[in-house]
Amino acid sequence: MHSLAGDVIRQAFFNSTEGKLHKRLYIAICNAILSGNLTPSSRMPPTRDLANELALSRNTVLRVYEQLQAEGYISSRTGSGTIVTHSVLDNLDCRPVVSKDEAPAEDYSMLSARGLLLLEHASASPRQWGAFLPGVPDVANFPHRVLKKFYDRQARQLSPELLTYDTTGGSEVLKAALTDYLRTARGVRCTPDQILITEGIHQALDLVTRSLCNPGDRAWTEEPGYWGIKNILRMNGVDIITMPVDEQGLIPDGEVSAPPKLIFVTPSHQYPLGSVMSLSRRQLLLAQARKTNSWIVEDDYDSEFRFAGQPIPALQGLEASSPVIYVGTFSKTLYPALRLGYMVLPEQLKTPLKKMHSELYRGGHQLTQAALADFIREGYYAAHIRKMRQLYSRRRQFLVNLINDKLGDSFLGQYNSNAGLHLILQLSAGVDDVSLAQRASRQGILVRALSSYYAGEKSQSGLLLGFASMEETEINTHFHRLASLIREAQQA
Predict the structure, then answer these.
(1) What's the pLDDT tens digit per position in 318-356?
(2) What are 183-216's pLDDT values in tens digits?
(3) 56-60 — which CB contacts under 8 Å span 24+ positions?
(4) CB–CB of 187/314 below 8 Å?
(5) Spatial distance between the Cα atoms of 441 and 423, rounded to a whole number of angstroms
(6) Among candidates 84, 80, 61, which has minimal Cα distance to 71?
(7) What pTM value is reported for the model?
(8) Residue 346 class from Cβ within 10 Å (0-12 exposed, 13-18 middle, 19+ buried)?
């Protein structure tokens, strides 16, 4: 039996010829209702009749009606048939009228003051791979098949614990493997129960800040220093006190009128300048922290890649029960998308911070952590670091030679230690490094302006050049273009 509703649906159905039959019918009825062609209280055609009209199976029509009813488009009552619901009209009345060709305008007024502050200082690059991008390892040389072997092995003997939420601060086997590695390679003093696995440095810093600071508390950061730390502090209402850095690292303030709650440092390889904190400065900082009841947050982000001399031990292991929260990551040693980092917590903080981590972030990735533990315990992690240390050392020296040949040794920054994944190319005081970095970006060269790492007005002009992820031929090609831009900027 033909009906007006059936004719409306039939026309909408045959106007579309793409997609599976049940999908076409679903879209046809939705569009008819939302456009007003099928008004509220309109009686829907019986499923058998509609199936005959459209030459479909009745099961297909029943399936579509069930979906529409579940979503609130139609309702069915015994003895009354199926009708279009009134609630659809109510929802339509609440919708803004927007042209199909007009996208909604961005409305920053809807954001919180903290959100606006974060966006004002946002510095993350929209591109995370390319020539001279700092802080990026060579992910192409990672032994993915080896890690996959361990992943598959864990998957074959899967336990339910590996597939549920984690409330203990990470995989026990990974924490045990990390304890042995950190003790040997970094001189860190810890037991497995002091380790908390995180999803990278940012989560670790956010957890520390939320856990230990109230709004209005103070935190020391290095000047210049990593922008990510400052953004986390801003979002948590913590007052940032920038402390100058020299060739021995952060310079502590001997006369502290308002002591900091947290002191953020990168002692083994200062970011971004590259200086190493001296032993006397480390001892002074530890004494300062004990005196003011402050916590030192040690970011040991790329300490494994030191290309000359002995490794620099971690500040955390310099003395027993030190007031240091040690933070590390696998983003530089393995690859960033792994999203795994770790913290070594002082005994007083390990239980509360693990509970807070569980409440705030709901830890997971247990299967990946178990595979990574095997990767570390069977020697592949240390072997990979040794291989990449040699590779990065060669690439760094290649870039240094290019700088000396094309620009001159005066362009190498005074703090450039033979370590890490980037170096500083120092510019004359009058050169606008931000503008230069923008011009380079338009040519596909992703350098960072050194002045952007300073919070105060006093800053140095320079460029951060990452070299780890580039073959020598690529370094050579892109540096020639960058050198031309630098010469133009120096002469302007």
Answers:
(1) 999 999 999 999 999 999 988 999 999 999 999 999 999
(2) 999 999 999 999 999 999 999 999 999 999 999 9
(3) 56/21, 56/25, 60/21, 60/22, 60/25
(4) yes
(5) 18
(6) 84
(7) 0.78
(8) middle
